[in-house]
Structure formats: structure tokens, C-alpha cells
Amino acid sequence: MTKKNVITLKEIAKELGVSISTVSRALNDHPDISVETKEKVASLAKNLNYIPNLFAKGFRAHKTNIIGVIVPDIGHYFTSTVLKGIMREAEIHGYKVIVSESINNEKRQAEMLQTMIQFGVDGILLSLSRTTISVDSVLKTLENVPLLLFDKVSLKVPCTQVIIDDEEAAFSAVEHLIQTGKKRIAIIKETEDSYNSKMRYLGYLRALRTYNIEIDESIILSSENISMQNGKRLTNQLLSMKVKPDAIFAITDSAAIGAIKSLKRSKIKIPQQIAVVGFSNSNSSIVIEPKLTTIDQPGNKIGVVAAQYLIKEMNATTQLEPKTIVIKTNLIVRDSSFNPN
Amino acid sequence: MTKKNVITLKEIAKELGVSISTVSRALNDHPDISVETKEKVASLAKNLNYIPNLFAKGFRAHKTNIIGVIVPDIGHYFTSTVLKGIMREAEIHGYKVIVSESINNEKRQAEMLQTMIQFGVDGILLSLSRTTISVDSVLKTLENVPLLLFDKVSLKVPCTQVIIDDEEAAFSAVEHLIQTGKKRIAIIKETEDSYNSKMRYLGYLRALRTYNIEIDESIILSSENISMQNGKRLTNQLLSMKVKPDAIFAITDSAAIGAIKSLKRSKIKIPQQIAVVGFSNSNSSIVIEPKLTTIDQPGNKIGVVAAQYLIKEMNATTQLEPKTIVIKTNLIVRDSSFNPN
Questions:
Q1: Which residues of A touch B283 (CB under 8 A)?
Q2: Do A96 and B111 count as a contact with CB atoms less than 8 A apart?
């Protein structure tokens, strides 16, 4: 399956000093790319005897009807809902699905991409590992087989990407708190600043700015692992402050549940004294009392849409234009932030 | 990979009118099998030119270092903990893992076994789909590649099986309730009587009999789907009875959490008036208040042990004797059944 004599998009990009995405879009006659660039790319591609994916794909004699999926962590609740969606949609179209895990490790991710190609899967759905710094192995895979990114994505890969808008989702959560009268809203986020954490934090900041609420660094708390335990610990820290917050936005349900437990132990009235909002609508969000206001991430829908687009690309007679598809989230208001009684 | 001219264990068993397991054990010189039977099997195997797995395996030229896993439902919390264990152990030994789902469907399970064989996996870990009636496709797979069953198993397949003892686990849960002074213990179980539900019910019955507690049909309740919602509903039903139970054993944490919610709504003191015990030690079991007493199913350990044994079989120079390995569960006592205050 190695194609040593076949020129890649990457090589064309390097030669011309432009991005791979530019080369891809130039070859696909994208309106954003200038006529000049298009001509340069087309000319070099012809000279180097570049075979576009479309034809490369045609060479693949053996159709296996199998879709390969690689996720960072197979045990994650949200991931399992995405996998459900992928499997159901694949089933409808007569495809089987095999799943593998990168253990959030870039090297393992590259190995699994290689394995999937060796297996002859017809297409790959990939959610990037947290440690992905170089996307080289992903770009190489994209030369061999239709590939689509979902959830944890990178703009460096010129392919269709299915995501939720974390920033907008966080904005709506914090806006809801402001609209219920809260003025001093703490956030519990991640120290490491993964893509998701960063976007949620930006949404938090935008909401405060939009409503002219001063940003107070002392109530912006971080933890390496956003667990229930750390949610408790950081909330205890907030409760020890002279001027306490009147709301807590935690970027995971686990941390939000920890916050509620800490508040209850200190006999704080939720939501009257301090309201709490989480993120992800996990099973536990309706187990805790008061029930948790949270962001529903429609994992199932992400899976369905990702599988749909991949299958479309796998069966297309011409190469399709890469798209970014944003799946809408919903704020689910429950007793932890709004109690009409 | 089809071996039309190769005789199988199944054919020998059919010819002699004995079980496949008997043939397998006879060929492996198992002490339970009579000398007479061993001679009959050995003689027929020789006449029919039977090639044991061991040699068949030797013919497999291409080692892929991949283990295939098939589970009924990839989104199940317990399953994800087993997968974690499998992946970690495989990683240590230099194997990659691909996972697929049977969607609890026998036909899909057979297809996925076929797919795994086509892929050339070095070994397969299988948890049977709920609807498995015929194990023919599993037996056929076992002729081609080392295979091991875990969690949802069948005695009809002569291979190593890794299980937890559901009956014993349920016994210990109910025994604990009896030892804390409870005398009228209700059970919430499954209508359909899956293997797990049946075993847990048998453990419940054995505990009552062991302690001379009369079995009362009116507090043995079933539901098709053992959800939180149905746990609530069935508990409301128990609360409407003239003589209420003093404890509830639910065969899932979800149903147990539903029970706690219903009891709290009716201002019943937990555990003083009615104690509650669940099964599986899910994340939610420490979210609910009071925290739930439950059975910890060591999914991770099941995965580790299953992967260990499979790898051992894959690398054995002689065929190993099939074993049944029982992984111990632990009763985790929390506030829902025992409150020292």
C-alpha cells in the first residue's frame, strides 16, 4: 500500500510554499483560491504526475464494506454515544464498523491508521488524540482512503470535519446564568487547555464581555483532571473566599456534580445562593439532586452525520469539497440553575 | 481461509454422537474423559485426517499482532471498562486491538467473526450477543483462530471462558441485607431473564433459603428494561403495598437509583426503613445521595485476564486445555444499606 512513486498533496504544497489545504482547494477549483494559484498548482501537479485521491481510490480493487473508527478514549461516555450513531448509520447503508483507540497517544494513532489501511477499510472516521502535534500520518492516510475528522479536529487536515460549537455552547450556558440574575460567575476549567476546554473558556469570556460583567481572575479556577473530586475541591476553595460567586460554570458534568456536593455540604441553597451549570448531559446529571443544568452534546447525531458524509465521500464519483459541519448543542435547564418555586 | 477439505471437531462429535467439548477434551487427554472414548475419538480423528487447531494455526503465515474483540453493546459502561482492560494488556504485549459490536444480534455476530477472520486477526475475544441460539459460527471461528469467551458465555463452546459469578455476587448482596437485620427483601429484576438477570435472581433465592426467609412472590418484581424510570415505578408499586418491604435489591444500579429517588420522594428513611442495594458500581452510584451499596464488577480485571489468556493461547506451542476463570466481585457497602450513625 505504500506509494513511494506517487506524489502527494503535501509535496506539491512544500514545493510551492503553500498549505496543503490550499493545494487541495486549488485542485478542486475552490472559489477562495486565486486563478494564479490554481494554475501554478495544476501545472506542478501535471509535471509531477500527481494522481488525485479520486483516481487513487479507483485503484482500490477490493471493497470491504468496512468503516474504521479511531477515537482517543473508547471508555468515554460521550464517545460511546458517537460510536452508537456511527454504527447505526453504517448498518443502514450495509457497512460494518471496527473501532480502535489511540489512548490519546499520537504514535499509537499513527499505528492504528496504518493498521486500518492494511485491513483495507473503505473509509476512516478519526477523532484526534490530545497529543497530536504533527498531522503527517493523517495526511498520508488521506491520500489512500476517504477520511473524515469528528469532535477533536484540526484545521491542518483538508477533509470534512464534524464538530460541536463548544464556544457557542459555553456562551449559552453562561448567558443563561446572567439572564437568571447571576453577576459573579466562576468557571472550573482544565489546566492543560485541551481544544474543548479552551473553546468553552472563550465562550465564558465572551458571555461576560457581552453583558459588561467584569472578568475576575480569582474565580477562574483550573484543574488538570476535571473530576468530581476536583470539582469539590475547587468549590471548597470558592466558598472560602470573602466575596463568594453566585454561580459556577464547570466545563464537565463531573466537576459540576462535585460542585453541587460541596455546596450541599456547606448548606448553600442551589440555585438561590449559588447556581451550577455543567457540560455534556451525562447519565449522572439527572441522578444528582438538584438535577444539573447542562449542555447536551448530541453525540449520536455527530456519529450519524459523520458516517453519512464519509459514506457519501466513499461513493462519490468526483472528489467532494471538504466541509465543516457544526452540530447544534442544547442547553438543558434543570433545578441546579433555575427553580421556579 | 475456508477449509472445506479439513475435518472439524464438530464433524467428529456428530459422527460419534458426543458433544464437541467431549471431542476436544478427549483429544487433549482430559482426565474426565474415559480411555474408551479417548481411543474412539483418536481413531476417528486419524481416519478422517483431522488437523488440530495447533497445526491449523501453524499454517497461518501472516502474524498481524492484532486482537479482535466483539461485544454485544459497545456503549455499555461495564463493557467499556472491560475494553480498557483488554487494550491495556494487549498494549503491554505489543498487540493492537480492534473492536466491533454485534448489536446483540446473532447474525451480525457471525458476520463480524467472519470479518475478523478475513482481516487475519491473531485471536478473538467474544462476549456473546443476547440472541445467540446457535453457536455454529463461533465453533467454526474457533477452528481458524484462537478464541476466548468473556462475560456472556456458553458452555457449548469448548474454549477458555472468563466470567464473573453473578449468582454468588447477588447472594452476597442479599446476605448483607439479611445480616443488617432486613427480613422482607424485594427484588427488581428483568422480565426477559437474560443470563445475568437469571443468575442474580438465583443468588437472591439462595440467600433467602439459606437464612430461612420465606419467598414472597408479591415482592419479586420484573421489568423489561431495568432503567431508573422503571426502578422508580416498581418502587412506587412496592410502597403502595399494605406490608412494605424493608429492603430492595435491584439487579442494576440504574433501577436501584430509581428506587432511592422514589423512596426519598415518599420521605422513607434510607436505610433505616428501607435499604437499597444495586449491581455494577457505575459512576452514578456515588452521585446519588445516599450513596449506593452495590456490587463492583471488576470489568478492567476481566479484560486483563481475558487478554492474558488469549495471548497465552496464541503463542502456545501445544494446544492449551480450555478453562473457566471466575473473577471475584466485591460488595461495596455504602450509606443506602448501612448507616452507622
A1: 282-284
A2: yes
Structural domain span for residue B40: 9-47
Looking at CA atoms only, how far is residue B127 from chain A in angstroms? Answer: 16
Percent of chain A scoring above 70 in pLDDT:
93
**Which of A80, A101, A112 lies closest to B75 in CB terms?**
A80
Enter the ipTM: 0.73
Residue of A nearest to B228 (CA): A287
Taking residue B47's Cβ as centre, other Cβ atoms within 10 Å add up to 11
Q: Hey, what amino acid is at A233?
A: R
The Cα–Cα gap between B63 and B75 comes to 30
Enumerate the H helices of chain A as residue ranges. Answer: 9-16, 20-27, 35-47, 53-59, 77-92, 106-119, 136-144, 166-179, 195-210, 228-239, 253-265, 299-315
Mean pLDDT of the A152-172 span: 95
Q: Which of B80, B84, B287 sits opposite A288 (nearest CB)?
A: B287
A111 interaction partners in chain B (CB closer than 8 Å)? 96
CA atoms of B200 and B193, how far apart (whole Å): 10
Same domain (yes/no): B41, B86: no
Q: How many domains does the structure of chain B reveal? A: 3
Å between A117 CA and nearest CA of chain B: 11
pLDDT of residue A202: 97
Task: Give A69→chain B minimum CA distance, Å.
Answer: 9
Q: What is the average pLDDT score of chain B? A: 90
Distance CA B9, CA B56 (A): 13
Q: pLDDT tens digit string along B159-196?
A: 999 999 999 999 999 999 999 999 999 999 999 777 78
- Cα–Cα distance for residue pair B4/A170, rounded to 1 Å: 60
Q: Is the CA virtual torsion B221, B104, B86, B305 positive or negative?
A: positive
- Taking only residues 253 to 292 of chain B, the set having a beta carbon closer than 8 angstroms to any beta carbon of chain A reads 257, 264, 282-284, 286-289
Same-domain pairing of B31 and B144: no
The yes-or-no verdict on residue A341 having pLDDT over 70 is: no
Residues 91 through 150 of chain B touching chain A, CB cutoff 8 Å: 91, 96-101, 103, 111-112, 115, 118-119
pLDDT tens digits for B142-163? 988 999 999 999 989 999 999 9
Count of CB contacts below 8 A, A vs B?
A: 79
Whether residues B74 and A91 touch (CB distance < 8 A) is answered with: no
Q: Is residue B195 part of a domain?
A: yes
Cut 0.90: pTM above it: no
What is the distance between the alpha carbons of residues B264 and B258, in angstroms, rounded to a whole number?
A: 10
Q: What is the CATH number of the domain that holds A228?
A: 3.40.50.2300
Closest Cα of chain A to B52: distance in Å?
27
* A58-106 confidence digits (pLDDT tens): 334 458 889 999 999 988 888 989 999 999 999 999 999 999 999 889 9
Q: Report whether B296 contacts B170 (CB < 8 A).
A: no
Q: Cα separation of B187 and A122, whole Å?
A: 48
Flag whether A331 is in a domain. Answer: no
